TrEMBL record:
Membrane-spanning segments: 12-29, 67-87, 99-117, 123-140, 152-169, 175-191, 196-216
Keywords: Hydrolase, Membrane, Transmembrane, Transmembrane helix
Name of the molecule in the record: Membrane protein
One GO MF term attached to the UniProt entry: serine-type endopeptidase activity
Keyword Ribonucleoprotein: no
Species annotation: Frankia canadensis
Length: 222
């Protein structure tokens, strides 16, 4: 169904690049002399999920870029560990292009739901929007392949419990990523790989619909 040979973990190039971007971005978030925007750092202020910047300035790139930023050491360590574990497996299974599509769609999905429900007050960062998409996509694909999906279900449950325990966590971002990941997982699991153009078109349509929903929200706000 998913087809192709499974790549060795050491060849998970996209995962390595994503982790590298997050680490470099975290370093830039902490550099002195980059200014003092509303978040305390100009780099963070420019790329974080800030609702009013989207609504007022049409900065829709913020639906993706927050996935590369983090709020602290524990935040980035946890997310990079999850990205390392799940990313290597999913990239090996899906291939680079489809895997990257899942990451982008999950990040945009999470941040879009956060914006739709939070509006001008929305403010968040973190790769967890995409990681939650990894969780649900992994579960759906594992079920389709009839392999053990119990462990990832436990992981999802634990992370949802954490999400709703701490008020500082963007729960809508996590839920949005989870929902989009499940949808992308269904596409990858049930649309034959020989119809890669259908898979790509479906993922592109989902991302486009998310951006359109954000534009409609902005119109209503301003």
């Amino acid at each position: 169904m998913l087809g192709g040979r499974v790549r060795l973990a050491g060849q998970a190039l996209v995962t390595q690049i994503l982790i590298g971007i997050c680490v470099v971005a975290y370093f830039l978030q902490g550099l002195p002399g980059l200014g003092s925007g509303s978040t305390g750092n100009e780099f963070t202020d420019r790329f974080a999920m800030i609702g009013y910047r989207i609504a007022v300035d049409d900065q829709y790139y913020r639906l993706l870029t927050p996935a590369f930023l983090h709020a602290g050491v524990l935040h980035i360590l946890f997310n990079m560990y999850a990205l390392f574990l799940l990313g290597y497996q999913l990239e090996a299974l899906l291939g680079r292009a489809r895997y990257l599509g899942l990451f982008v769609a999950g990040a945009v999905g999470g941040n879009t739901l956060s914006y739709l429900l939070g509006g001008l007050t929305t403010a968040s960062v973190g790769a967890s929007t995409a990681i939650f998409a990894f969780f649900s996509a992994y579960y759906v694909i594992a079920r389709r392949l009839r392999v053990d999906s119990g462990q990832i279900l436990v992981v999802i449950g634990i992370n949802l419990a954490i999400t709703f325990t701490f008020s500082s966590i963007d729960k809508w971002g996590h839920l949005g990523g989870l929902a989009v990941g499940a949808l992308i997982g269904l596409i990858y699991a049930y649309v034959p790989r020989r119809l890669a153009w259908v898979q790509a078109g479906a993922v592109t349509a989902i991302v486009a619909a998310l951006f359109l929903a954000a534009v409609v929200k902005s119109t209503a706000l301003v």
